[in-house]
Specification:
The protein is of the alpha+beta class. It is 55% helix and 18% strand. The strands form four sheets. Strands 2, 4, 5, 8 and 9 form a five-stranded mixed sheet that branches. A five-stranded antiparallel sheet has the order 10-11-12-16-15, with no helix packed on it. Strands 1-3-7-6 form a four-stranded antiparallel sheet. Strand 15 and strand 16 form a beta hairpin. The longest helix is centred in the middle third of the chain and has 40 residues.
């Protein structure tokens, strides 16, 4: 950054973070009661917002967005043969590295090839991993971990069985549980809230100066507000970038300074968005230095030139007056050009900062992402202009210079425009993320959205009262006299301090003549006099009932806005209602789908030689419709038993169906093994299965059992 631009920025920072060294005079009047009441209200609402944010931050990674909607083999299913691969279907885009899908056999040994492939087509999000050949029967565990397209870590596990279920000793690695939760998850949530708050203060404070009150550029309170927003946004963005690696990976705070994890995080879309935000904040620093440096000084120069021109017009005529008028017009032109350049540059920087959220969170995934991202940028800018401008207006009302009626009316029109934009963009985003009335009331996202809408309604209601106070402030004669503190020719309370210090110099000399020769004591007396004058002016300003009422209503709006930001941060960390309903539908479909082949074992004893054994029947897939059957007869020793004849019949007593006989054919060169294809079971239910086994001409028995067909 050039030295000519660093100096004004450093000066703005010093003014923003600096405190007045002047001690409070014992005789300086104070409005302690109103300040105490306002502070208690604001503190209560801020505490509530922090508590809400803490609860949501410590809730762990349950608020992830991408969700598993299906798999092959399906969760809990039983397949006849070993699959060649495992595929996972997701509700939205995910990032998966090699090894992110693990398949463990019943002994806990890994049987996948570690290479994760993207097998999605036609907009379907699907990932697959191949399995090693020669897998045996038993229950297999699938554990997976990914990062959703909106930057949140997701993980899960399920089982499927080959042939038949078995006991398994496989355990899911601990990192799946820790990702996105614990201390790192809580700090990440706090950082996201701080980033939103800093963005609102930075953009809103700067826009208030350019759009509503150019003279506010010289207000230390507004400077402090805007620079605090820049500092908060920069610090929180850097913290989020460092936390990104452990947040999506190990979940351990000790990995914050892991350069390898930082490198991996920067290579992802959310990491790139954070890096882009830091670069844009460097440009924003230059913008702030010019806004509160050259632009603020030109405002003071313009006032001085107006006074000089008026004096010269009263004393001289002809060429001198014309030259003064020309100089005044040139200064006004330069100020307009500077304001135009700041407006264009500030708009570009603000839109770029907003885009760093839009490209990495909700708007970048799901349906109509190309439309949703610009809409999200407009939504964020409208929030920042409204709430940040509200904070800047409160600073002027509380610490001065007192805003004029024109300033308040300009902000009122700006706020109305922002609310209109918020209503339109919010309605679209709600439809896109919720999708149905049931999701609005039956999901966490929908319920938080209702809370947000109610808070916005409260803000609009309080804003209506602020507009009433604005009207009274404009129409009140008393207000006009108080507004004189902000009209041309008057100085802000900060300027009053300098002026009274100058006036106090004779008094200091008088004190020296009276025996007070200490210059430090003389300067202290001058500062006390200046503080008393500033407090007196503030008391006069606060005595105006219209301006005091406007200040209270603006404070209430700012306090509600703090809670609103907390709810908004919670929404960005909650699974959208549309996705949650998709997951529920997939889970219901999985429960209603057939769980795999139905196995039936029936012991029998025909009473003759070698007449004891077990008939094992497998019905595949075990659902209504077309099925295949396999029957095996084995003796007590487990060896196949030859039977001259076997018969099977199905009956559904609940529907009075059957018996349905099944023609079985023996398998060549396999003793005690029969098959049947094309068995039609017309409906699901608990079927009665009758198995008849004949081991000799006279030894025969029929055994009955039940089989549940899905």
């Amino acid at each position: 950054m050039p030295s000519t631009t660093r100096a004004p920025f450093r000066a703005a920072v010093r003014r923003a973070v600096g405190r007045s060294v002047a001690p409070r005079s014992a005789t300086a009047p104070r409005s302690a009661a109103p300040r105490s009441t306002a502070t208690r209200v604001l503190l209560a609402l801020v505490t509530g917002a922090v508590a809400l944010l803490g609860v949501l931050a410590t809730a762990g990674p349950a608020g992830a967005h991408a969700a598993l909607t299906g798999s092959d083999p399906a969760k809990g299913s039983v397949v006849r043969g070993a699959p060649e691969q495992v595929t996972l279907d997701f509700s939205e885009g995910v990032a998966m590295s090699d090894g992110a899908i693990r398949v463990l056999d019943p002994r806990g040994q890994r049987v996948d090839t570690r290479k994760v492939r993207d097998t999605g087509t036609a907009g379907k999000v699907q990932r697959a991993v191949s399995l090693k050949p020669g897998l045996g029967k038993g229950t297999y565990t699938v554990a997976w971990q990914a990062v959703s397209a909106d930057s949140h870590p997701v993980s899960g596990a399920f089982t499927f069985s080959v042939g038949k279920p078995s006991k398994t000793s496989a355990t899911v690695p601990q990192q799946d549980k820790d990702a996105g939760g614990g201390t790192v998850g809580a700090l990440y949530g706090v950082g996201r809230y701080a980033a939103y708050a800093g963005f609102v203060l930075l953009i809103g404070g700067a826009a208030f100066v350019l759009v509503c009150s150019p003279r506010a550029a010289s207000s230390r309170a507004v400077q402090r507000l805007t620079v605090t927003g820049w500092t908060t946004l920069a610090a929180s963005t850097l913290a989020l970038l460092l936390l990104r690696g452990p947040y999506t990976g190990s979940g351990r705070f000790a990995d914050v300074l892991d350069l390898g994890a930082l490198k991996d995080a920067v290579a992802t879309k959310p990491g790139a968005a954070l890096v882009s935000r830091l670069l844009l904040l460097a440009a924003a620093a230059l913008f702030v230095s010019v806004l509160f440096g050259a632009y603020a000084r030109r405002g003071g120069e313009e006032t001085a030139q107006e006074q000089t021109a008026q004096a010269e017009q009263g004393e001289t005529a002809g060429g001198d007056a014309a030259q003064g008028q020309a100089a005044q017009e040139e200064a006004a032109r330069q100020r307009r050009d500077l304001r135009y350049g700041l407006s264009v540059g500030g708009t570009v920087v603000a839109a770029g900062l907003a885009a760093t959220w839009a490209m990495a969170e909700h708007a970048s995934t799901g349906i109509q992402a190309g439309v949703a991202m610009p809409v999200d940028v407009l939504h964020l800018l409208a929030v920042a202009l409204w709430l940040g401008g509200l904070a800047a207006l409160f600073c002027l009302l509380r610490w001065g210079p007192a805003p004029t009626g024109t300033t308040v009316r300009r902000f009122s029109r700006l706020a109305f425009t922002c609310v209109t934009v918020l209503a339109a963009t919010g309605l679209y985003q709600s439809w896109r993320q919720v999708g149905s009335w049931s999701a609005l009331t039956g999901t966490s996202y929908g319920q938080l959205l209702i809370v947000k809408v109610l808070l916005v309604g409260v803000l609009v209601s309080v804003g209506w009262f602020s507009r009433r106070w604005t009207t009274r402030l404009t129409e009140s004669p008393a207000a006009a006299s108080v507004q004189g503190a902000a009209v041309p020719g008057r100085r802000s309370p900060e300027s009053v301090t300098v002026r009274t210090s100058a006036r106090s110099a004779p008094e200091a000399r008088a004190g020296q003549e009276a025996g007070t020769t200490d210059p430090v004591r003389a300067a202290q007396l001058a500062r006390q006099r200046a503080a008393a004058d500033a407090a007196r002016e503030r008391q006069e300003r606060e005595a105006d009932p219209q301006r005091s009422g406007l200040r209270r209503s603006v404070l209430t709006e700012a306090a509600v806005a703090v809670v609103l930001l907390a709810v908004t941060t919670a929404l960005t960390g909650t699974e959208p209602g549309r996705t949650e309903e998709q997951v529920r539908a997939a889970a219901d479909a999985a429960r209603s789908a057939p769980g795999g082949p139905v196995d039936v074992k029936v012991p029998f004893d025909t009473g003759g030689p070698d007449g004891k054994g077990t008939a094992e029947l497998e019905i595949d897939p075990g659902s209504s419709g077309d099925n295949n059957l396999e029957l095996r007869t084995t003796g007590p020793s487990g060896k196949p038993v030859e039977a001259p004849e076997v018969k099977i019949a199905f009956t559904l007593p609940a529907k009075d169906l059957g018996p349905l006989s099944v023609p079985l054919k023996p398998v060549e060169r396999e003793k005690g093994h029969w098959k049947a294809t094309g068995l039609q079971l017309p409906m699901a239910g608990k079927w009665k299965v009758a198995i008849t086994v004949r081991t000799s001409d006279i030894d025969q028995v029929t055994k009955t059992t039940t089989a549940t067909i899905g």
